Amino acid sequence: MPTTPTSIAFIGLGAMGAPMAENLVKRQFRVTGFDMREAAREALVHAGGHAAASAREAADGAGAIVLMVVNAAQARSVLFEAGALAALAPGALVVLMATCPPGEVEAIAAEVAKSGRRFIDAPVSGGVVGARAATLSIMVGAPDESFALARPVLEALGDKVFHVGQKPGQGATVKTVNQLLCGVHIAVAAEALSLAEKAGIDGKLLFEIMGGSAASSWMLRDRGPRMHEPDPVVSSAVDIFVKDLGIVLDAGRAAKTALPLAAAAHQMFLASSGLGHGGRDDSQVVRAYRALNAKPANDA
Amino acid sequence: MPTTPTSIAFIGLGAMGAPMAENLVKRQFRVTGFDMREAAREALVHAGGHAAASAREAADGAGAIVLMVVNAAQARSVLFEAGALAALAPGALVVLMATCPPGEVEAIAAEVAKSGRRFIDAPVSGGVVGARAATLSIMVGAPDESFALARPVLEALGDKVFHVGQKPGQGATVKTVNQLLCGVHIAVAAEALSLAEKAGIDGKLLFEIMGGSAASSWMLRDRGPRMHEPDPVVSSAVDIFVKDLGIVLDAGRAAKTALPLAAAAHQMFLASSGLGHGGRDDSQVVRAYRALNAKPANDA
């Protein structure tokens, strides 16, 4: 009878990964981390974990590997090229928590299964704040038995663990849908602002009214105020939604599903990036609307 | 020095207008109502108001007229054809509270001004519940002096009275923007559901997760659950958004403002209506997505 592993390889100690790995340490898992940056490895050791010189070494004999890397290509590289998959204990859990296209998650899962390990598709939402406080939402696609084994690991990282389906790729799909809604909600807030400004309405008053009405969204309340700032601090960049709405539309293509609103919103993030604002806060998609609709730019 | 009127003609005693007129009676205004339906007139008398046999008679010598009619054409008909405008006291307030295109509101306002009366552009949101409880949001476009005169009337009807601009049409624009956001938020919730269902995700679980995340909107939480019902009770019909997103796009045309998300959402409400669902609850825009994306219909 397999049990939840106690030794975990953690790959990717960035803004999200570092506090997640530390939360596993706090729950008494033996965590061996790897990141390209030495400072990140040292910080984990300082927090009570262990550091390895490579992903393969981190995975050596471990009962689970958690991947909090940038994208699916990095996950493939770690597992298949760097040899981490083959180094894991037989029957080990492979927990992919990065945001990846559902189709790529399925393909990686198939290769993991061939090696005799269990694949857990478990992307997160909640950002750096949620990663630090262990309050992430985690959307899991995995068979019941694998989910049960991984659950204590996941519950060390988030307080909202949803088992959304038996198949790898279903967790990624829910995360994809989450990004579809978030991206469209940001873009439509900018579109609404653009129409109001053209009519001489004060944008701040507009969002105050809309934020308290049936027209409200979480994003309108969060990003709306930043649309009035000339260059707000970046909480998440325009180019993140260029990428994530790209993943949404790729998922729609793979599933042969028409997504007209997501497609239109993606165009506005793309245009914003093309205008040179890809590194700015994602609220600045409003600059693409202002370019279209002739309201002077924020910094004009 | 003009003062707030005490005698008010109230035209349009429907689901919204009837409780609004009664709220004015409760605040000690002398209210004379007109509606085509005799039962509606009798109900106002029963509540302490007065009834007139025509809009002109209701307006005769009144210090204000409130229009809670179906659309701009009815407002024109009452004011200019039925002769209500000419019957009002000199300098009386003309308060248009129906949802109308901003351009039409401007045109009506110009004719009212020519007659020496004061025009108040004051559409509402908050629905029948808000009309009954006198908790409507009211978005007012009017010069300061006119707004000050109308304010006690408006505050008898709503608890969130926003003075959004000096010009008639600006209140209508804010209401238009409100409908832009509401319509897109309903449609994108259906779009998100459509993608998730295609991947075999349980739609109820999906909305439970999304409703508690950054992907949430007021509409997703309100309309989302009804997307799972085969034929929910109609709170507001698909055809209302066919009309209201039509007003949004007309406002965009008039202002030469591109509204790509509103345009795409309008297509989905149009298609839903064209498929025969115009009279159903607006959550049933999901039927257009299901028709497109081959998920079996609700009632299949």
The secondary-structure class of chain A comes to alpha/beta
CATH class of the largest domain in chain A: Alpha Beta
The third-level CATH topology of the largest domain in chain A is Rossmann fold
| 3D shape of chain A | elongated
State the separation between the terminal residues of chain A, measured CA to CA.
66 Å
Number of strands of chain A: 9
User: Largest interface here, residues on each chain?
Assistant: A-B, 70 and 70 residues
The total domain count of chain A is 2
What would CATH call the homologous superfamily of the largest domain in chain A? NAD(P)-binding Rossmann-like Domain
What is the second-level CATH architecture of the largest domain in chain A? 3-Layer(aba) Sandwich
Number of discrete helical segments of chain A? 14
Question: Fraction of residues of chain A in helices?
Answer: 40-55%
- Cross-sheet strand order for the largest sheet of chain A: 3-2-1-4-5-6
Radius of gyration of chain A: 21 Å
Q: How would you describe what is shown here?
A:
- The structure is a homodimer of 300-residue chains.
- By secondary structure, chain A is of the alpha/beta class.
- Chain A folds into two domains: 7-166, Rossmann fold (3-Layer(aba) Sandwich), CATH 3.40.50; 174-293, N-(1-d-carboxylethyl)-l-norvaline Dehydrogenase, domain 2 (Orthogonal Bundle), CATH 1.10.1040.10.
- Chain A is built from 14 helices and nine strands.
- The first copy, chain A, has helices spanning 17-26, 38-46, 55-59, 72-81, 84-87, 102-114, 127-133, 144-155, 170-198, 203-211, 218-223, 238-254, 260-277, 286-293, and strands at 7-11, 30-34, 50-51, 64-67, 93-96, 118-121, 124-125, 136-141, 158-165.
- Chain A has a six-stranded parallel beta sheet, with helices on both faces. Chain A has a three-stranded mixed beta sheet with strand order 7-8-9.
- The radius of gyration of chain A is 21 Å and the shape is elongated.
